[in-house]
Amino acid sequence: MAIHVANPEVCALVKLFAKERGVSMSEAVKIAVREALAARDEPVSAMKADIAAIDIEPA
């Protein structure tokens, strides 16, 4: 499967990310997407753990 990126800014960002990480552009995209998804899910998971830790006594 191929992904075509027509946005020059996105291309430059991916190239920079790949260079900084020492990986291919494909690997850079994979890493960036995984990190973005993890960052998005982290607050929800942390919130669920906080809610589960609350001991609520029935009224």
Blueprint of the fold:
Blueprint: H1 8-21, H2 25-53
Helix pairs in contact: 1-2
Structural write-up:
The protein is mostly helical and 59 residues long. The protein has one domain. It is built from two helices and no strands. Helix 1 crosses helix 2 (25-53). The mean pLDDT is 85.
| Low-confidence sequence ranges | none
- Rg estimate, integer Å: 19 Å
- The N- to C-terminal Cα distance equals 57 Å
Strand element count = 0
Short description:
The protein is 73% helix and 0% strand. By secondary structure, it is mainly α. It has one domain.
Please give a handful of descriptors for the protein shown.
single chain; 59 residues; mainly alpha; elongated
